[in-house]
Write a structure and sequence with these properties.
Distance between the termini: 44 Å
Number of helices: 15
Number of strands: 4
Radius of gyration: 23 Å
Shape: globular
CATH superfamily: Amino acid/polyamine transporter I
CATH class: Mainly Alpha
Order of helices and strands: HHHEEHHHHHHHHHEEHHH
Number of domains: 1
Structural class: mainly alpha
Length: about 475
């Protein structure tokens, strides 16, 4: 059992942070007795980019097509501004009280417990972990689609464009799950820095390729029809479908910016001085700015290239023909990126379950005992039987759900709707109000509550639209038999 788990077990599950006086200069531990944190603006930015630029970027051309040239780009910018602003509020809540010497909140739920009380921890946990589990499912679906696209591109290149190259996604979901079983045995978040940096490079690579292919298609053609208001009622969809698709597009955009549920966990890897909230705000600005630039390019250029017929997965819309090697590379980058992103989102789930179990059964060898496997000076690795068995079971569970409901856009829209308002807006706003002791009905209080209410309405509409989309997709899908 690692020191991190031992200390976290005393408090995380109960919503309390473990705190010790700041050690003397030169100590190898931080003020809470844990091993000294080494994260920087760059490593935190890598975690953010890894978390934010995920499968959501692939749906932005489709989302822009539903909203049109005016509402689409404006919505992307609004979500970026809201995410950056509320992330700053959340970063200030990493420590309770004094932002430099106050006691640490190791997780999002710790922060909620410190500022809002334990009764809200349960609702926060429900939203957070449902979203994290859903993200694992969404990433499994996306990775399998990209892996299948590689197979189809190579098949068409070898056998001709008229060949039957359809393939079952299920096989690739199973392979992705097996890979995740191995990576899930990394003990904690701090061990993922190298994986996040690699994943961030991959995400920028395939986003750049998508932008380049969209630009090339926009210049050389053929391009699809675009309008100021997006897909047209009567020509493309019915009026009812237009409304449902527009709301679902909002959910997709919300999902594309979703990372607040792991912000505190990322911040807990950052060293100090300077104060962790200052470092995190710089990392958030860098991460959100970078991702927004790519999002605008992917959304707008993708819409320009495909028009109102933009596909749900942007890269699959370029066909599987030529240059097939570039399509292969882009999809390979997606798969590699999602291997890392899956772990970034799942590590908080793993930590929550393991710290809770360690608190309930502190003397159980099955839960607490570490079995050394690699004992070198530079590389050490141990196996914990409980960690091995429960994390493997989680990966199998998420993979099975992915196989049952492999609906890319609908799942992304629902996840974005479920996670955006409560985790990105509501809790950060409420904690900020409590932290700064903002009085009710003052102009600042009204402005913050208005922001929260508007985001709630958007999330509610997107959730309903996505559920409707899933129900429609289920009518035409047969598990293990439908090909992509």
């Amino acid at each position: 059992m690692t020191k991190d788990v031992e200390m976290a077990a005393r408090n995380v599950a109960s919503g309390e942070a473990y705190y010790l006086p700041r050690p003397h200069h030169g100590s190898d531990v931080d003020d809470d007795g844990k091993q000294r944190r080494t994260g920087t603006v760059w490593t935190a930015s890598a975690h953010i980019i890894t978390a934010v630029i995920g499968s959501g970027v692939l749906s932005l051309a489709w989302a822009t097509a539903q909203l049109g040239w005016v509402v689409g780009p404006v919505t992307l910018m609004l979500f970026a501004v809201i995410t950056y602003y509320t992330s700053g509020l959340l970063a200030d809540c990493y420590r309770t009280g004094d932002p430099v010497n106050g006691k640490r909140n190791y997780t999002y739920m710790d922060a909620v417990a410190s500022y809002l009380g334990r009764w809200q921890v349960w609702s926060c946990g429900l939203f957070q972990y449902v979203n994290l589990v859903g993200t694992a499912i969404g990433y499994t679906i996306t990775a399998s689609i990209s892996a299948a696209a590689i197979h189809k591109a190579n098949c068409f290149h070898k056998n001709g464009h008229t060949a039957d190259c359809d393939v079952y996604d299920t096989m690739y979901m199973v392979v992705f799950g097996i890979v995740q079983i191995f990576f899930s045995q990394l003990p904690n978040f701090s061990d993922l820095s190298w994986l996040s940096i690699l994943a961030a490079i991959m995400s920028l690579s395939y986003s750049t390729i998508a932008v380049g292919l969209s630009l090339a298609r926009t210049i050389s053609g053929p391009t699809g029809k675009t309008t100021l208001t997006g897909v047209e009622v009567g020509g493309d969809v019915t009026s009812a479908q237009k409304i449902w698709l527009a709301f679902q597009a909002l959910g997709d955009i919300a999902f594309a910016y979703s990372y607040s549920m792991i912000l505190i966990e990322i911040q807990d890897t950052v060293k100090s001085p300077p104060a962790e909230n200052k470092t995190m705000k710089k990392a958030t600005l860098l991460g959100v700015s970078t991702t927004t630039a790519f999002y605008m390019l992917c959304g707008c250029l993708g819409y320009a290239a495909f028009g109102n017929a933009a596909p749900g997965n942007m890269l699959t819309g370029f066909g599987f023909y030529e240059p097939y090697w570039l399509i292969d590379f882009a999809n390979l980058c997606i798969v590699v990126h999602l291997v890392g992103a899956y772990q970034v989102f799942c590590q908080p789930i793993f930590a929550a379950v393991e710290t809770r179990a360690a608190k309930i059964w502190p003397n159980a060898d099955f839960i607490t005992r570490e079995h050394p496997v690699i004992t070198g000076k530079r590389c050490r690795f141990s196996v914990n039987i409980f960690r091995l068995s429960w994390r493997t079971a989680f990966v199998i569970f998420s993979t099975a759900l992915s196989i049952v409901m492999p609906f890319f856009n609908d799942i992304l829209g629902f996840l974005g709707a479920v996670g955006f308002w409560p985790l990105t807006v509501y809790y950060p706003v409420e904690m900020y109000i409590r932290q700064r002791q903002i009085q009710k009905y003052t102009s600042r209080w009204v402005a913050l509550q208005t922001l929260s209410l508007l985001c709630f309405l958007v999330s509610l509409a997107a959730a309903v639209a996505s559920i409707e989309g899933v129900s429609e997709s289920l009518k035409h899908y047969v598990p293990f038999k439908t090909k992509s």
